[in-house]
Design brief:
TATA-Binding Protein, 4 strands
Length: 114
Amino acid sequence: MHSLDRQKIMMGAASKDVHVFTTQFFSKLEMEGAKAVASWTKNKSLDIFEKKLIFIPVNRDLHWSLFVVVNAGEVESAHQSDGEANVEHPFILFMDSSPGAHNYKKLSNSSEGG
């Protein structure tokens, strides 16, 4: 089984389209809110809205899950598209190998307000 090597992904040709956060990102977001992690991208001059894929791993209760944000920068154009077929719509994937181990609704709600 191949593991996801963050450095290999970030150094590869797809690095302009992909960003992989550490597990500390979600933990801090969940505990302290969005303002606490705003500097994580600002200090690196990283515009996450230019990325096609954003990986956010979650480690809670000795279990791993993963959020994948797809086409984050297309939120505004998707709302203005009026159903155009050629618009890349944004969406979020939640992957969990043990269904029910992490409740994605609770995880996503807890990251909103801190």
